[in-house]
Task: structure prediction
Amino acid sequence: MRRYVLGRVGQLVITLFIYIALVYFLLQAMPGDISMIYLQNPRIPQAAREELKKQLGLDQPPIVQFLSYIRNFFTGNLGVSFSQYPRPVWDILLERLPRTLVLFITANALSFYVGFMLGRVIAWRRGATVDHAATVVGIAFWTAFYPLLSLILIWLFAYTLKWLPLNQFIEPSLWVYAPWPSNTVFGYMVFGIAVISIAVFAILWSLGRGQRKTGRKIGLAWALSAGVFAAGLGVAASAGMLVYMWDIVRHMVLPVVTLTLINFAGTMLLMRDSMLETVEEDYVMAARAKGLPDAVVRDRYAARNALLPTVTSLVLSLAASMSGGLVTETMFSWPGLGQVLFRSALANDYPLATGALVFTGIFLLIAHFVADMLYAALDPRISYGGEPVAEG
Amino acid sequence: MRSLAQHWAIFRESRIGIAGLVVIVCFGVFGMMWPLMFRNVWDPNVYHPVVGFDPTMMHPAAPCRGHLLGTDPIGRDILAQLMFSTGREFLLGVLSAMISVVVGTFIGAMAAYYGGFTDAFFMRLADIVMLFPFVPLLVVVGSLVRLDMFSFAIILGFLEAFGGITIILKAQALQVKVRPYIDAAKVAGGDDLHIIRSHIIPNVLPLSFLYMMFNVTAAILSEATLSFFGVLNIDMSWGMMIHTAETAGYLFDYGRYWWLWLPSGLAITLFCAAFYMVGRGLDEVVNPRLRKR
Result:
């Protein structure tokens, strides 16, 4: 196991390096460069231009420029943004990253869960109306034009029904007198939710270990989870942060729902296909012959084994869901990485655009890595000796 | 291998695939009506999709007799734009999917057949390409050099070709490679290129065709998204139509100006869903375990 993880980390570092190099050379190959404004300006004397070129390091050979870029990158120097002038790129990206992270994880987890649940049901009732209906609706969302779908949802829930705020990350009028900056509250919120979910997971795991699930045990688990959640809320309320947290949550709902709608069908359809294969297996028939209830055969025998290919596809679709997430962020003015990327690209803010692109890549690489580890942990057939046994 | 007729018989069983095919044929007819209408029925000055203008009314005009789907904020006929774009979307989708599938099939077959370094190289390359967030990358590239539709289709095709499709097709080619008839071909003196071309590729082809359908969907969605954000050098497309409505500020009041976004938005979704559904239908042809018994 350790060797496998180390090998994957090595691959991760190499891939990261190649990715940075690709982004760098791609952007270098593009015509037009901000330095040309100075270097080709006839009003600046020739000697001053030469001096400027030297100061910008543009007289060095490309490989030296690249190496200095890499060095700057790893020392946290990504340059200064043009469009938000004196702020360093690194600073902007670090501010935006947690918001994208939370949106991405929540939406992916939710859409995976919804897709898994629906796929399991429609595969079990293959050919029924629910199967056809869910497939068609799923495909419609899966191939929907994201920007338009988000606009329609904004119109419906925020503009017409007024249930949810229009867009943005926070409600400015509420936050004018807030004693904390929004990122602090957001940080506490994420931390609190992480602690609560770990606690709930621990409770469910420790109570669900036995073979038999009794009603009392389930009740106890629910009560304990509710207690932990209430305690978390109480802590937030006593600190006076609850109002602000609630505001952020309200702003999160629409982007998360949009992303879930866009993404769930991929998992659902794959789950359906993969489960159609497992229901034909002998062990499912054996389970049925034993007289086990239908739901148990479905959930514990067929669905469990159908899960693995779905996890593989989750790994493969991370990049696509990232692209969808970036579009969604822009549409909802959610101030994350994606919005920064789109705005800086459209404003020709090269340092910020490069930085955001590289950050997106790193983010995806790490997500990929985590999903891979998850897969290896789930599938006992994967050997940890090096290469996976079954490739492709 | 089954014959084409047998493939068709299996495909016909899947209702979703047939529904998708019907929608695609409808779009095809719709797109082919464009040159006929433009040459014979419509006045080119009024109905030109990019520079047309109708001086007789205020714009955007609601659907009326002369303009069945109304006009956009600068006085161009929506139906004409929709029809004109259909053919171009076909071109874009099919061209980029063709490139990705042809290149992907060839690389997959090569990687499976030769193994060793070729295999490792292309698989690692695919790993990296798969990590690329295409849309953000193309946004950044597109904001620096304005891509036109043709170069966009080619870039997208190659990006897809070296990515996940290679891995999937290679896995399929690996299964073909170990069959006895490959050995028989080798013993009979067939060279590598011949074996790849006439034994491996034909057996991978149904799966390639399946992924071609999915890639059409991906290409058109990417084009629409990028056009919507205004980073492509395309004068007219479905995404561009929504972009026009959005930049002119008409998307704030949806209900009143529905003809500005509904036809094009619906067209994108329907068109992509149709190709996706055909892909699902083909999936049942390629993958026998999905079929009903």
Q: What stands out?
A: Chain B touches chain A through 52 residues (CB under 8 Å). The radius of gyration of chain B is 22 Å. The domain at 4-290 of chain B is CATH 1.10.3720.10 (MetI-like fold). Chain B has a mean pLDDT of 83.
